[in-house]
Design goal:
single chain, 3-stranded antiparallel beta sheet, Arc Repressor Mutant, subunit A, DNA binding, alpha+beta, 5 strands, DNA-bd_dom_put_sf, HTH_17, SinI_DNA-bd
Amino acid sequence: MNTSFDQLPNILTVKQVAEIMGWHPNTVYIRCTSGELPSFKSGNSRRIRREAFIEWMERLEKADTFAILRTDEVEEDRLNTSPRKKGGYHLARG
């Protein structure tokens, strides 16, 4: 599903988010009930505000960028054969 964020309804269902993400609805439901993706109950269903979904997507993108940067740092450190670690980051000797 190719969706522009401004064309999304104000309130999304778990199924709609799952279709946008290409995930199984259970995965979205778990992210909602864990609090990772802000949502609210409406009867027996979960609903996600469009703004909350967009903000969550932006956090995912930032986390993905951070993971890519961190992976690059670890690879560089591996090449420098540094055995030291601090706070989850490898430090190259220099």
